[in-house]
Amino acid sequence: MPxxxxxxxxxxxxxxxxxxxxxxxxEERLTLINTEMTARLxxxxxxxxxxxxxxxxxxxxxxxxxxxxxxxxPAPLPELYPTPVAALLQRAHHRLLTGGWCSGALVDEDGAxxxxxxxxVEARGDSGLEANAAAVLLDAIRREFGxxxxxxxxxxxxxxxxxxLRMVEHAGGWADTRGL
Length: 180
Prior knowledge:
This protein is mainly alpha-helical. It contains 7 helices and no strands. Among the domains are: 26-53; 81-177, no CATH class. The protein has helices spanning 26-52, 62-65, 84-99, 115-123, 127-145, 151-156, 162-177. The radius of gyration is 36 Å and the shape is elongated.
């Protein structure tokens, strides 16, 4: 006897293929891409912060980075500090600004001066005042840069006058604050 198999229903319903997605407008695509890029940038910024958190950095002094025009002519001498050492340091700073800064010599062939050369010429022969101004300047340098042998050593260690001029200016303000 032949073996019979139950009949299978060949008329079963089949599922339809999903409809293709609707086409997005240009504005919709740009919005999606903007959202995705913002998320990626946020993730990259967070990864950068995490990856660089262990790096010890020192703050940047903007006066050393941001400079103004180089040839603006001589600046007028501001009103001098009322104390003698502070006034001398202020005049020395002005001398460096207007006459130029140099390293390796008190005065170079163009008339530019080092920090100590500017103090010496502005002291006008008063060796006590010159010594006091140099001591205040060295103290100000050591406060910011640690152990420095002398003002000339500090002056000659720089390739430009930005930091030395800034230190003479700071020393003048510090001397005024101390009443020197």
